[in-house]
Amino acid sequence: MAEVEDKLKDYEIIREGEAEILQLKKNAVFFNPVQVHNRDMSIAVLRAFVGKRKEEHEALVNKRNKLHQENKRSETSVQNGEDASTSQLDEMDVVPEKDINQAQDEIEDLSTEATKTPSWKVTRELKPPVVLEALAASGLRSLRYACEVDGLGKVVALDIDKASIECCKRNIKFNGASATSKVEAHVADARVYMLTHPKEFDVVDIDPYGSPSVFLDSAVQAVADGGLLMCTATDMAVLCGTNGEVCYSKYGSYPTKGKYCHEMALRILLASIESHANRYKRYIVPVLSVFMDFYVRVFVRVFTSASEIKNTPLKLSYIYQCVGCDSFHLQCLGRTISKNSTVKHAPAIGPVVPQECSDCGKKFNVGGPIWSAPIHDQDWVVSTLAGVKSMKDRYPAYDKITSVLTTVSEELHDAPLFFSLHNIAGTVKCMSPSLVMFRSAVLNAGYRISSTHVNPLGVKSDAPWDVIWDIMRCWVKNHPIKEQPHDSPGTAILSKSPTLEVDFSRAVAALSKAQMKKVKRFLPNPERHWGPKVRAGRKITSKHVSLLGPEAINSILNGAVSHEDGNGAAPDKPAPEPEGIKDDEPSTKRQKTGDDEEANEP
C-alpha cells in the first residue's frame, strides 16, 4: 500500500461529476478546472440531443407507417375497380382451375414474405449516437460523456500529443470497466481523422486552446446528417475586434467594436461554420450559443440540402456601427423575390444607412458579415433547462448553467446584438434611467425588449434607433443636464425634438419572469483568477501571475526549487506510472507544436 501511495505522489486525483482523472502535478497535460461550466453545459445539451434524436426517429417511423396505410387503401380501391370490370368479361374466357390455384399460391407466398419484412418497415434501426472529442487532452470530457449521458454509444477521444493520449488511456482504465467499454483514445491529427471519417459521428466536440478555425472544414464533414457540432473559441481578443485583420483571416469576417462584441463573436463563429458547411452542400441550425467566462461556445445541428443553402445570404448581414453614438444597423446580404409560385434569390438592396449617422452626424464603420438569424432554438433551450433542473445533483456547475439558460430563454431570439443602457446614457451625458423604467418606455411605445445573457446591462429590442433616442430625449427633458460641447454626438442627438410621446409608467412586463421570481441570472466567479490557464508543456514562471495568482505561482516555484539538485538543475525524470494502470506504450515527453490551434483542452 505504501508503494502505491509513493507512486501516486506525483499525481493528483481530480473528480468532476461522475468521472475521476489522474493528473500530473506538473503542467504536462492541459487541464483547466474553470471549464467545468463548459463541460456541464455540453452534457446538458447532449442529453437533450439524445432525447430529441429519439423523438425525431419515432416521428419518421410513424410518418412512414401512415404513408404505407394510405398507399394500401388506394391500392385496394383500385383493385376493387379492376375486379368490377373483370366480372363483365365474356364467360367463354375461362382460365383453367390449375392455373388459378398456382397463381393464388404465388400470391400467398409473396404476401407471407411481405409480412415478415415489409418494405415500408425496413427502417434503419436507431443506433446509439457516436461521439468524437477531437482534442481530448486528459480525456475528462470524454469520460464524463460516457459516464453521465445515458444512451450514448462509443466515445472516440483524439489528440495529436502522445503524452496526452497516454494520460487519457490511463484515466480510462482508472474509471473502470464502464468507461473502458465505451471510450477509446487514439493519437491522431484531428483534421485528418475527421476528413477520413465523413458523416460517421452523431456528435463532434471541438474545444481547442485558442481558435477552432483550422478544424471547422473537417468538422462539418465528419458530422452525420442531423448531428450535433459543439465548438468553443477562446480567442476573444481576435473575435471582439482588437485584432480585426486576424479575425478576417481566420473567420472571414471583420469585427466592429461595441458593447455587443461578445455576442458578435458568437455570430462571427456561426457565420464561419455556415461558410464551411455550404461548401459541401450542408447548412447549420443553431440550437444554443452562449458566452461564458472567457470564451464562446456554440451548439449547431448540421444538415445536407443543396436547395436550403440558397437561403444562407438571408441569414448573414453586414453591420454599420456609428463612430459617434451607439447606434448600429444591419444590412442583409440577400433577399427573395416571389413571383407566382416561384421564389428567386437576389442581392439585397442597400445601403440601409446614409453616408452620415442620422442621429449624431458621424461616420459609420462597416463590419461583417455576421450571422443575423436566431442563434438559439427556444424549444431546445427550454427543454435543456428543464432537464438540468430535473437532475440538479448531477451538475457540479448547476447554478451557473441554470442562470445562463434562464437568461437565454428570455432573450428576443430575432433581435441581433444589443446595446448598453449606461452607454447610451453616457452618450447624451445624463443620469441613466432605471432598467425597469426604460423597459417600460419601450413596451409602452409598442415594441419588445429583453435582457441578454452576455451582459447584465445589455438590452435587446426591436425598437428602431429613432425611438430609443426619443426616449432618451424625453428623459433628459425631465432630468436636465449641463451644456455639452457643440460638436459632441450627444448635443447633436438632443438638438432634435422628440416625435414620440414617451410613457415612463410601469409596464406589466417591465420585469422578466426570472426577475420577478428573483432568480439569480449573473453569478460572480466562484474564486479568484477564474479564467484561462497556461498552455500544457510551458514552464510556469512569475509572468503567469495574472492567470494563476501569486499563491499558486509561489507554491509552484518553491516546489521547483526544493527538487533542484546541487548544481541548480532540476532532475529530468518522468513521473512513475501508478501501479495497476500502467499502459503498455512507453512514456514520452509532450511534443511541442508550433500551431496554437493544436494545443488541447479537455
Give the gist of this structure.
The protein is α/β, with parallel strands linked by helices. The chain is built from 20 helices and 17 strands.
What does this structure look like?
With 602 residues, the protein is an alpha/beta fold. Among the domains are: 1-33, no CATH class; 131-319 and 362-397, Rossmann fold; 418-517, Phenylalanyl-tRNA Synthetase, Chain B, domain 1 (2-Layer Sandwich). The chain is 39% helix and 17% strand. It contains 20 helices and 17 strands. The protein has helices at 2-8, 36-86, 97-116, 140-148, 162-174, 177-182, 190-195, 213-222, 236-239, 244-251, 261-278, 378-390, 398-409, 421-427, 435-444, 465-478, 489-494, 513-516, 545-548, 550-562; strands at residues 11-16, 19-24, 131-133, 155-159, 183-187, 201-206, 223-233, 282-292, 295-304, 316-322, 328-332, 334-339, 342-347, 364-371, 419-420, 449-451, 458-461. The strands form five sheets. It has a seven-stranded mixed sheet, sandwiched between helices. A three-stranded antiparallel sheet has the order 11-10-14. Helix 8 (213-222) packs across helix 11 (261-278). GO terms for molecular function: metal ion binding; tRNA (guanine(26)-N2)-dimethyltransferase activity; tRNA binding. Belongs to the class I-like SAM-binding methyltransferase superfamily. Trm1 family. One of its GO terms (cellular component) is nucleus.
